[in-house]
Structures are given as C-alpha cells and as structure tokens.
Amino acid sequence: xxxxxxxxxxxxxxxxxxxxxxxxxxxxxxxxxxxxxxxxxxxxxxxxxxxxxxxxxxxxxxxxxxxxxxxxxxxxxxxxxxxxxxxxxxxxxxxxxxxxxxxxxxxxxxxxxxxxxxxxxxxxxxxxxxxxxxxxxxxxxxxxxxxxxxxxxxxxxxxxxxxxxxxxxxxxxxxxxxxxxxxxxxxxxxxxxxxxxxxxxxxxxxxxxxxxxxxxxxxxxxxxxxxxxxxxxxxxxxxxxxxxxxxxxxxxxxxxxxxxxxxxxxxxxxxxxxxxxxxxxxxxxxxxxxxxxxxxxxxxxxxxxxxxxxxxxxxxxxxxxxxxxxxxxxxxxxxxxxxxxxxxxxxxxxxxxxxxxxxxxxxxxxxxxxxxxxxxxxx
Length: 379
Ligand SMILES: NC(=O)c1ccc[n+]([C@@H]2O[C@H](COP(=O)([O-])OP(=O)(O)OC[C@H]3O[C@@H](n4cnc5c(N)ncnc54)[C@H](O)[C@@H]3O)[C@@H](O)[C@H]2O)c1
Fold this sequence. Notes:
binds nicotinamide-adenine-dinucleotide; 27% strand; Dihydrodipicolinate Reductase, domain 2; 17 strands; nine-stranded mixed beta sheet; Rossmann fold; alpha/beta
C-alpha cells in the first residue's frame, strides 16, 4: 500500500515557529509511510508574525496565510488544527479551535497550569471533539519495546523506574532569554511545563500514577541577556527531579523518578527510560536511538544490547537497519493521531490524551507545592 490512496485530512497550523515547521516537514514526506490509512494535507498556516509565514510559501498545498487565528478558523475546508504557540496562549486558542468545531492536535503542556488543562479537557469532552497532545518519544522502537516488555509482567516485581528528558544548552549563561524561560509565558512549572509530558506520558500510559511525591527544583541562573544589550529575569525552574512513589495493585512503595532538566551537562535532547524489576530490566536512551538494553537475572548479571533498527509502529520505506530520529518520531506520532481519529489505530500506541495531560499537570502542581513546603505531597 502507499498513502496516495489514503483518506485526506485537511490540517491548519497555528504557530509557525519551531514546531509548526517540524510538523509541516513531517507532512511533506508522508509518502515515506506505507500503511497509514490517512494522509494530512497542510492547507492553512497562521502566525501573528507575518515573516514566520514566509517559510511555508514553499509548501504547495498551503492556500491560506493568516495573521489572526480567528480568520484561519473561519476557513471552511479544515478538519484538524495543530496549535504550537507559547503556553500562556494554549487555553484561549485551544478553546477557540474546539468552539469552531475543529478537532485539535494540541502541543504540550496543554495549558499553562492544571486549572487551564482541566478547562480545555472539559470543553473538548462537552463538544465531543477529537483531541490529543504532542509527545513523540514513546514512538521510538526502543520505547515501544520497553513498553511491551513492561506490559507482559516479565520484569517481575518492580524495583525502580526512571524517566528523564535532559537538555544542556542553558548551561551557557550568555544564551539569550526566550519565552520558555519566563514564568508569565511558560508557566510557574517552568521546565516541567516545557519537558514534562515527555517523561510522564509512558508511566501514565502504563498505569503508573504516583500516590506521593517529593520534588527538588533548581533555579540556577536568575538573569539572562535580553538580546538588546541588557539583561532580564530568568525566573523559570531550570531543573526538576521528582521522587515519586507508586502504589500498584499487589505492590506498593515503588520508586519512580521523573527528571526534567535544562542544565544536564553532555545532554542535548536525551530522552531516557529505565525500568528495573527483580527478574529483568530495560533501559533505553536517545543517545543510542536504535538500541535497547535489557537485563535478565542470572548467575552473572549483564546488560544485553539489541539493535532494533527502524521498527516503527507504522511501516515506512526506510531501511530496517537505519536509525530513527526526531523527524521520524514526529511523523509516526501524527500517523497515530490521524489513524486513531479515523478509528483505525488498531493495537498501535496512541498519542497522549487530554486526561493524561491533566494528570501530568497534577504532578507539576504537587511538585511546586512540595518544593514550597519542603514536604512530601499526597496526590
Ligand atoms: N513536542 C515537542 O517535542 C516540542 C518541542 C518544542 C516545543 N514544543 C511546544 O510547541 C509549542 C510551541 O513551541 P515552539 O518551540 O514552536 O515555539 P516558537 O517560539 O518557535 O514558535 C511559536 C510561534 O507562535 C507564534 N505565535 C505567538 N502568538 C500567536 C498567536 N496568537 N497566533 C498565532 N501564532 C502565534 C509566534 O510568533 C511563533 O512563531 C509550545 O507549546 C512548546 O512547549 C513541543
């Protein structure tokens, strides 16, 4: 099969920045997919910065270039809207999309805080719109295999779980401020709002919702260059380590560590997952994007490295021994969104749900409270 015979879904993008362009690029090579039943066609783009729209003029399917999202939402031939704007705008723009009768692919963190996330989720339920939230790393072959192994119960009683997303570019104190480093745009949860769904998505999907947590939050540099010769407050949390406790049926007191860091030396975009049980364990890092490490209890205990290659949920033309990268994951995530929307996801992994996005905000709200009161918070 190829995707030329697939059902076409017409997409509009609001927010033509880093992620708006990434998504357009994922659509542009949709013919790499072999078995996706749906094909997106990018029809409209909106950004308040008209210069940001120029890059999209090379995309032949784009008919509308708008600078007001309300204009884009009046376009008759749009089915799905992807919104990739700063976090303080999520709630109002997401609600506008839903009330315009469109389905939504939302960017994380799905509202600037827990209250906003709940309001968006509740409106989506009321209006019965199909909504999912962007979180692409679980679509990696190593992550998919780790999830499958964890679901079989083959790991035995769980000893520990660690889920991390680690950056390091903020180590440079001369890096100019941007909206992601300012609470009023990024949200009080700071790095957790920025990177947090990436670490919470898999544990939540596996049913591992913490019952208690203690958070260590760090602000390292409190000012940054403003890009105009001066400096400006950098008031977001840079690093967050959440020490969580899982109480699962039949096993309580399991440690789950969620790490989101903008200052993690040597890490550029490291997404890591480690699940250790008494019988076996799995470890995966984007530092080795096609390789899964597994451990099995024996007389001598060793990690085995298995190269999984390009075993993606949706089949592609890409060689099976090749390495997956960020653009591939984004495309797989969108394939999952569109297939699920069409009722054709099957047993493949689905995108993060509004309920999962609300649940991840519950963690960050508890983390802020834990840090402020220096105590363990019960969820
Ligand atoms: N899934 C991921 O891996 C990933 C990675 C990076 C960012 N993100 C998320 O994507 C979203 C956007 O981040 P980004 O890195 O693309 O930001 P960005 O700053 O590169 O782009 C945001 C764009 O939104 C535009 N904008 C602002 N207000 C607008 C409005 N009212 N209407 C239309 N456009 C408007 C800006 O002009 C800008 O071009 C955020 O929610 C962020 O957390 C997700």
